[in-house]
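Shipment paperwork, digital attachment
Item: protein structure file
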Amino acid sequence: MRNTCLLLIAMLRDGFRSAEKYGSPFFPSAPLPFPKKSSYMYGKRFIPVCFLLITLFAFNTEQAGKQDLTLWYTSPAATWTEALPLGNGRLGGMVFGGVGKERIQFNEETLWTGEPRDYNREGAATYLPKLRKLLEEGKQDEAEALAQTHFMGRKSNEEDYAQKKEAWIQKVKATQMGSGSPARFNYDDSKWEEMAVPASQGWESVGLEGLDGAVWYRTSFLLPKQWDGKDLVLELGRTRDDDFTFVNGKLIGATQGKDISRHYVIPKAQLRKGKNFIAVQVLNYYDKGGLTGVKGNEQPISVYPEDKATGGPDRISLEKPWKVMVLDSGPPSFPQYQAAYQPFGDLWLNFSGHGAPSDYKRELDISQAVARTSYTVHGVTFTREYWASAPNQVIAVHLTASKPGQLSFESSLTSPHKKSANRKVDNTTLALSLQVVNGALRGESFLRADAKGGKVTVSNDKISISKADEVTLYLTAGTNYVKYDDVSGDPAAVCQEALQSVRHQQYEQVKAAHVRDYQQYFNTLSIDLGKSSNQLLPTDQRIANFATSSDPSLAALYLQYGRYLMLASSRPGTRPPNIQGIWNDMMAPPWGSKYTTNINVEMIYWPAEVLNLSPLHEPLFDMIDELAERGRKTAKVHYDAPGWVTHHNTDIWRGTAPINASNHGIWVTGGAWLSHHLWEHYLFTQDEEFLRERAYPVMKESARFFTDFLVEDPKTGWLISTPSNSPENGGLVAGPTMDHQIIRSLFKKCIEASEILQTDQGFRAELKAMWPKIAPNQTGKHGQLQEWLEDVDDPANKHRHVSHLWGMHPGEDITWDKSPELMQAARQSLLFRGDEGTGWSLAWKINFWARFKEGDHAYKMIRMLIHPAASGGGSYPNLFDAHPPFQIDGNFGGAAGIAEMLVQSHEETIDLLPALPAALPEGEIKGVCARGGFVLNMKWGDGKLQGLEVVSKAGNRCSLRYGNRKVNFETQEGKVYRLDRNLKLL
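Attachment content:
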């Protein structure tokens, strides 16, 4: 009995691993050492006591197991990155779990700014020879200047923007003059709103979401007697974008540009005794606006004497609420290279009298893709369930109470879009309509309330529920987007179809269909990396503790959370996740919340094949097909080349031309890297029909572009890629290493695919002739893998991009078996770059260290990735990846990295536990996939392989390696093969 008690105590204190130490009938490998016969143990008291202990043990086992697939918290989300994400591939929702006021911020994947248009700059190709010549001569600055003017893609509205902008500026400046001007000393601003100054994230973050335009600010200060007769200095900080600043009705300064700190002198003649008024007209043309504050060592927003030796206060702070008035919110549409993903709206639930709750909990159960919030008020327990259904295309919110008639609340729909409005649809349904400003897309969202008991009332702006027993809210949304060149859709029809699909079903039926649909994908893989007492803590506390304590199950949860996020944001028939998945609450999101194809989009799909979610790769393939269509014109217009090309960014309209600045926007291998995913899908699935009908034609056309684009380097005779860059590092160059790795890999894949398909013998011969001539990987003077043709790497460079290591991950250009010396050079490069990085950069480094077969270093990077987000990369409380700000790629890259530590199959042999860290000595994974068409179920203990099952999906020959042991055997399609710890077939 003593040992049984010790077992229970150990389990409660340290989790299952410590319990296993004491022995247990639940762990066959560690039998419980019961004492010899005892009258007490076999007496009457033993059975009820044992039953109680076993009941407690079983209950805690269930709870601990549940924790592995549950994120949970003890308070509502205070910020967006604490809210819990839901998604069905098309609709996304962020659940805050509020008590008196609940917010579900939601998105629809096709709501973007912009419209169908031509992104290419006609005549660009005529400048290509000169660009190449300038780079050959080492004139990088001249090449970048020429490219910026003549080679970058076309912006929207660029032809007549300057004229429209000037006319608008003159219109709003007119309010600076006359008796009614807000600049005047005696202007009455008593009816204006107030705004906190400064607003570092722009006025969008303090009440003017989605606003561009002209805004007046006003404040005042009392002139100290000691400052009388002195010139003063007004520090206004940085302003987005232009300002005209007045003191007591007189203009004292005006500045154009958002990155310039305003520093104005107020002449003593313009000052008054007592109160003085400052008025600032801010003109913001796009993105964030307002008085955004200071950076670094700049002076805070304040006034002070120019001659500081005057006595009195040193300065008067102006960092306080200012009066604010929006003058004109309609500036001309600012020219943009590409569009931005938009939030759709918010669903609000307002509950009267729900303050001071007890027993609060909110959670996200990723085994069912269901979020829950529960709490108790006045003896009544209220519970909400939330989920996003793919079969029925709705987000559901189900509300219940422990007593009948207790559900009384109001629900409403709002949107940050200026052009939005509500209307009543019918007696149970409210609608929200919106139009994107300066764009082609409009949207509709419908909210329907189904209640049991009580009363439902719908007005033009809300749904009121009174004294109901149970309520289900169904939210859906749609836009008029059909395809990148078609905006003829009917958003209201999308909503009506979704709500009609649930009209005659009970809540439990709709939920059951959702769970079945979700679990057909999610249940294909399970993972157990061990237990600890930390898994009984709320998720935010686990994240805080992860770097300094043992919590292996959080690493397993992180992997499964990555799979959950992919299921929530990428389903067959939808668009692929952008850099924030399908979740975004900002009108001007970071990086436009676009698709960045120089790492981020690809990283998002790293887990798709290996983590047994192959069908979810489909949206990326759809996008690749569309980019290939658009990229053919870009190849012709910008390079006068056949085939197709895309650069480092794209959007919903599938722009493929180079964008932004020429020092990083001219990167030609985006399409080639995306083509890598087509080949990977074939390697994992062995689907020859997919290879023939879909993958190879796109890969071939991408390779066709490079057969024309590559040129001979006059210094070395190698074929090189020029102009291009090593993503976001080093500017416009000739011959970046990453390009050559990707192109060489693409050529090899096309050669192999054409041989499998027995086609294109002539093209295959052309690629075989060119492939060996592509500039090879080189080791530099510091022992590093060179990032460029020239040996100019800086060992002190800590740039987050480590693009020249593409050839060893995700590529297979550099491996331990084929080129150990280059692996050592790549390792040296990564050591120079260091471990620190943004979230996605940390995730890539996990995969790098796994390929180096250094598990402890890889696990160190996992600890860095799963730590509270601060100034650098990490994880937010909801486990979202932090760049910062939020980017979703790190979640997917981190999940793939954990798998890469356990199984690698990029060479001919499948490596088992190639980078197992000491921190994960026990574990089991079922359903992990390997190239060649294999699915593995694997278990290990004490840091060593215990056993393995191999499922052969294609009947290929299987080659396995564990440490120094290796085995090869023939397989039959559909059969399961079992091996012991020594790789002996059983």
